User: Fold this.
Amino acid sequence: MEPSTVVRRTPFYDYHRDAGARLVDFAGFEMPVRYTGDVREHLAVRNGVGLFDITHMGEFEVRGEGAQAYLDQVVTNHVGGLAVGQALYSPMCRPDGGIVDDLLVYRYADHYMVVVNASNMAKDFAWMESQCPTGVTLGDRSAETALLAIQGPKAAEMLRPHVPAEALELGYYRFMTGTLFGAPATISRTGYTGEDGFELYFDVKYAQAVWKGVMAAGTPLGLELIGLGARDTLRLEMGYMLYGNDIDDVTTPLEAGLGWTVKLQKGDFTGRDVLVKQKAEGLKKKLVGFTLEGRRVPRHGMAIHVGGKVVGVVTSGTFSPSLERPIGMGYVEVAHAATGTALEIMAGGTALPARVTARPFYTRGSHKS
Assistant:
């Protein structure tokens, strides 16, 4: 059977269209890439507050007595260390150490929620299902779950009258359940922008009520709608990964600089043996950040040279609205990965001078630590 080519829409599609968004096919969904302009939207999140529709993300529910042990087998981070009301970020690897996806795991009192990238939903579910033991149930709740992100230094002020008081005291990567504009919701102090903010999960049947409530609460504070364009520049300023660009099934968490998510001491998990060996023998390549002079932007796939020799490849690049200079990430041979190393990014026949730079590039974010 041929795969479906039908483009899906989130329950907020009509609001995006009415707001004049430019809509594109992203991971099988018709999504807003921009409303008023990437730079304006980006700076609205850095300086005020922005609203993202990220309902295209996938949500899986894991239940059963062996749920924690099962999740600790399929992801590299330590699920067993989570308290109720805590979330963690983790890669999920293949036996060869390649990354299937990067995801979030939420621990509730009686189950777990796994949040995956939209482009990987079907692949991830099949992968997790293939390893799911008897006594553990894995359910796909993506179609019934709406997800909005409110990000920016004014996010808490905006939600203050509309969520339980405890939600405003949550630490980073903590969450609770409560009422949000009349909807039962998971209120999570998470995000992918480097700013303070919340990610809000609720049943799609409440989509209209929640959207209207959020817009009414945010308008007095200058709430802006944010598209995929600004979402990408915001995450890149923080040095955050984009699956399919910076990490994929032929890169490992150690090569990507995600060693802090690889908990070898927790016991066996898929890909552990390869990662143990890689750590012992040393890396051949490493993901680095770099900055460029001028205004030419590095693009995915451009070669990285040192002394006329190819030493790596660009995975992500943009012009940073906050720093007003080009930034990027890419894999280079470890001999050229030290901060301060001079690189050349090959834009056609032009060599663009660059320098390895510590991440995050942007260090003034408001997120709660």
Summary: The helical segments are 13-18, 38-47, 67-74, 121-130, 155-159, 207-218, 228-237, 272-281. The mean pLDDT is 97. The first helix runs from residue 13 to 18. The two ends are 48 Å apart (CA to CA).
